[in-house]
Amino acid sequence: MDEFEVFEQEKSFWNPLNSVIYILETYGWYLLIACIALIVIYQKTLKSYIQKFREYKFERDYAAKYHKNPDVFAAHVNAQQQWAQKLQEKYNKESEEYQRKMKEKEEKKREELQRKYEPSGGHVLGRKDDTSNLRPGYNPLMGAGSSSNYRPPRKSPCGGGGCGR
């Protein structure tokens, strides 16, 4: 082995990319399993503990902030009450409008039914009703129309199609 080759091997061994590749080749499966285990542990336990800690810290900071200055707390509570009152007024207004529309709709429906069933002196023969359930141009005596197709029965030696063989 030449002195130059040994220097090249040492130089290439300390190359960071080659080091990373060597570690992945040697311990890749172990690293993958460890990453999956860490993710599962984080999802199952650590995530809830971190959330609880954040809530505790927020409550502690909130209490400290308003305990020092009660005027800020009173202003905050007052603002919340005004906001809730505003939302309640908006809800009441929308509810009244909806009730009014429903009453109008019911009134129109009642008037239309009254007009429809109002006695008009009897039914005149030859006059068509405005409300017809049938499609235009349909005559029940003409048959089902284009939707039915006649198909002749099969020419089978046995009746009912098939001889049971």
Comma- or semicolon-separated keywords:
68% helix; 0% strand; 3 helices; single chain; mainly alpha; 165 residues
Distance between the termini: 88 Å
Strand content: under 5%
Class from secondary-structure proportions: mainly alpha
Backbone CA Rg: 43 Å
The ordered string of helix (H) and strand (E) elements is HHH
Spans of 5+ residues with little confidence (pLDDT < 50)?
none
- The number of helices is 3
Instruction: Please tell me what the overall shape is.
Output: flat
Task: Indicate the mean pLDDT.
Answer: 80
Sheet with the most strands? none
Share in helix:
55-70%
E-strand count = 0
General description of the model:
- With 165 residues, the protein is an all-alpha fold.
- The protein has three helices and no strands.
- The longest helix has 53 residues, at 16-68.
- The chain is flat and about 110 Å long.
- The N and C termini lie far apart (88 Å).
What topology emerges from the helices and strands here?
Elements: H1 3-13, H2 16-68, H3 70-117
Provide a short characterization of the protein structure.
This protein has three helices and no strands.
